[in-house]
Amino acid sequence: MSDDSHTARFTLDPAFTVSAVDPRLFGSFVEHLGRCVYTGVYEPGHPSADEAGLRTDVLELIREMGVTVVRYPGGNFVSGYRWEDGVGPRDARPRRLDLAWKSTESNQFGLGEFVDFVRKIDAEPMMAINLGTRGVAEAIELQEYANHPGGTELSDRRAAHGDKDPYAIRLWCLGNELDGPWQTGHKTAAEYGRLAAETARAMRQIDPDVELVACGSSNQGMPTFASWESTVLELAYDQVDHVSLHAYYHEQNGDRDSFLASAVDTESFIENVVATADHVRARLKAEKRINLSFDEWNVWYQKGGCPQLAPDAPPNQDWDEAPRLLEDNYSVTDAVVFGSLLIALLRHADRVKGACLAQLVNVIAPIATEPGGHAWRQTTFFPFAQASRYGRGTVLQVAPRGPRHHTERFGEVDLLHATAVREDGPDGGGAVTVFAVNRSQTEALPLEVALGGLGLGRVVEHSVLSDADPDARNTSADPDRVTPHAGQGTRLDEGRTLHATLEPLSWNVIRIAP
Fold first, then answer.
1. What is the pLDDT of residues 174-190, one digit of tens each?
2. Residues 438-449, buried b or exposed e (16+ Cβ, 10 A)?
3. For this structure, is 327 an active site residue?
4. Is 211 one of the annotated active-site residues of the chain?
5. pLDDT digit string (tens) for 271-294?
6. Would the pTM count as exceeding 0.70?
7. 43, 177, 251, 503: which one is catalytic?
8. Which of 6, 116, 308, 498 is most buried per CB count within 10 Å?
9. Main-chain phi, psi angles of 32, to 5 degrees
């Protein structure tokens, strides 16, 4: 191995693992917000629309991404949502004000359309329940309508609406961000914990096997963070399976080094929620462990009428229908940070059992569309698609050694952020994929990975997402400006050590096969 002090190194050993990856880690999120639904996934009359009004060009891109779970219908939207408005004949569905995003909701896309959508992309539905303005009764009515086979008024109503077979929704969110004062129906931790526990208890009376996610803190910076989780879980521990986490990041005041290290906060957030949940487990002397659902995460520039993140931004005051909101156009730098967030999730696959990129189309999304026009991949599309494709299997422990640098927000951080996933092959001997980010804006980073004991013999691929212009991005006019390219000089030596060079400010996917 090189003695160069500027080289990053780690060792992979099949005996030292983190956990198997739950496929739900590669979920996403569709909210009735801006153009995520209307002119995003759903646009009757579009040249590519199918008989249900779904854009098949968008469906093809979602399948290419490898999305496994879709959370719906919110988000802040769900805290004022009446699910009944979105079922039955479309011409009889009411138009409503959406208080969360100051928009008008047509309800032309609702529960049945959502289930049809997730089936067509081969994903699992994750249904959020309104616990802001509604409660136990409405939750179990929704559950009965969606999941009961038949013979009751609600299940027969679903059949009359054209869906005889139950939707079989197993995964449910008990509200959304109810710790936040921006949330319609905002509650204290004690108020929410009791409501979540009673709602969960009633839902389990219908189906003991449902999986339920309790609201955690809206972000780690909330003044009630950790005390919220502690109180909620003490009240609802026995009734829920997961607690949620939400986090968004963006470059602030030109401090790009700190932005590139955003996953330091992500990993801290995960570890702190795990510590809080396990503390409650010890206090209650409970056997089961609460896992984490990181069901909102992304790069988000937090402007343009976002009530919780940019309260001073002018909201949409005209109650428009499907306005252009939160349509961030992502750069190469954003994509590298995005990839680093994926690495953070994989590094904690032992407790993060689900995650939802927020959101899927147009609204802070990896897929963008034009009404009546084409759809294209944003820069963030590529890390997600690669992680979903190659991040299945078992996460191996990675403990990097190498150069560090100073950041204003996080202090000293490693220039290398990395994880590795081993595919499940015969006797566990599958290919290994290294996911790695070089956080340096200016310097290439030599990487050496000792692979002894893994039975690997050749480098299959080294894919790199970087650009001479770190602010380069894909647009409607130039949708393929940024795409991954091949890394140069990546090899295995006779001692089964991987040698690679990570370009400055880059997302890297290196696949090594037996």
1. 999 999 999 999 999 99
2. bbbeeeebbbbb
3. no
4. no
5. 999 999 999 999 999 999 999 999
6. yes
7. 177
8. 498
9. -75, 80
